[in-house]
Design a protein that fits this description.
alpha+beta; 6-stranded mixed β-sheet; 3-stranded mixed β-sheet; 10 helices
Length: 320
Amino acid sequence: MFAFASAKGVRMLFDDADFAAFLKRASFDLIVGVDAVTNVATLALLKEYTETYRKLVVRVFLHHRKGILFHPKFCWFRSLKGGTAVLGSGNLTLGGLAGNWEAFSLCGATTAEAQTTAAQWRKWTLSNKARLKSVDDEEVLARAAKNVAAAIPAVDSDDVALDDVSSTTAPDTVMIAEIPRGERWKQANFDLETFRQFFQATPGARQRVFLWHVAADGTVGDIEVRPCVSVKSQNYRIELGAAVNLSYPEGSARPIAVFLRSATRKFRYRLLMPEDPSYNHVLRILAQRWTGRTGRMRRVTMSSDELRRAWPDSPLLPEP
């Protein structure tokens, strides 16, 4: 149950590999509000997901009481051993899930407590049956249409996470890395130290990294939510969306990725192919700073200030 939802927030949750797998085997009942933020595009996207996942039910809470908001934010899950509740301040928006300072509590439940929660949920939904509408209800769509022009609370704006990744006060470590050749080169391989120290990921843990690719003109792309993948060969992979539909270069030239860490497991990045105008410049930076053995994948780290001096017109860096 979420007060507000946005298209980017919905995609972030429903396109997550683990959550998508969950939706294929289990039922999920989602209720969202339309008092603010939730717009027609978000409702259309939610309808698409209900057509993809047969066990997904989405309803919209629509009321006509002035001065009162539909404002809950929580999820609860039931299992054979009881259940789990996720209670917090974040809405189903990109800001609420990944961009803002939010607080969440993870609460376990016994079998009896889960049964009580399920009974309360059924009781509440039945008592509010008249207010729970389908995502394509005409009255719901008319109310959601007003949210396009209405002032959207900044705390739930999808732009919040983009402000966050361009923050000059964040832990702004930079890594320049060659991407090795391979059948799955788009899932860039990194060694254990890089995986732990730079990406702040723990091998074997169910963690995500959040990536935003930056174009040459500084345009920041959509969020990429990537699981941290560990394989038996002791390689650690993070998929790069910017590499989709690209072929690995011929010859000895390797793609170069430049990552700017803005917060824990959050990164802006720029993927440079040999034909990119900035490729040779960044390659020289990498060659000047690399101190390892010949033939190894070259990876160097530096601060954003050092990158600014070495690559003054880098689109990764916000205006000083």
